[in-house]
Amino acid sequence: MLIESRPATDPEIAALVTAQQRELREADGGLDGQVTVTHDDIRYLAVVVDGRAVACGGLQSLDATTGEVKRMYVRPAHRGRGIARQLVAALEELAFQQGHCVVCLETGTYLPAAIALYRSCGYEPIPVYGQYVDNPYSVCFAKRLPVAA
């Protein structure tokens, strides 16, 4: 397994984000009809297994001290192998390298596996923020990153 940076224009990242958005629409009962594609202001990481990207996640800077995890997705056939946990750690390292001391994220109340993952990685609930404020299905989390010695 390899975790590598990929541009937003990478076709495998686009395919993973499209699959993530499709799965989210199915999970929330089609409540969010908006399809979101990749964004240039998100730094994407891909998890590559046997030469194929099987997972992705992104980091978007909200401000000088805060990064937001975006577009976390692991293809169903590769779940349960610890890939998401390693990807979260890699995104936290990227945030640290970019000078962020806090990482936050949003997920849906209808995604208990995602909530369990983030809690087990040390994320704590925070008030819903930004574009998620009016979404009754959004829950947000944050984690303070360790300070370099």
Automatic annotation (TrEMBL):
The family database entries (InterPro entries) matched by this protein are listed as: Acyl_CoA_acyltransferase, Bact_Acetyltransf, GNAT_dom
Q: Which UniProt keywords apply?
A: Acyltransferase, Transferase
Q: Which CDD domains match?
A: NAT_SF
**What is the protein's given name?**
Acetyltransferase (GNAT) family protein
Pfam families named in the record: Acetyltransf_1
Segments forming domain N-acetyltransferase: 3-146
Task: Name the PROSITE patterns on file.
Answer: GNAT (PS51186)
Task: Give the source's domain of life in one word.
Answer: Bacteria
Species of the source? Micromonospora nigra
**UniProt keyword Nucleus, yes or no:** no
Cite the GO molecular-function annotations of the record. Answer: acyltransferase activity, transferring groups other than amino-acyl groups
Keyword Transferase recorded: yes
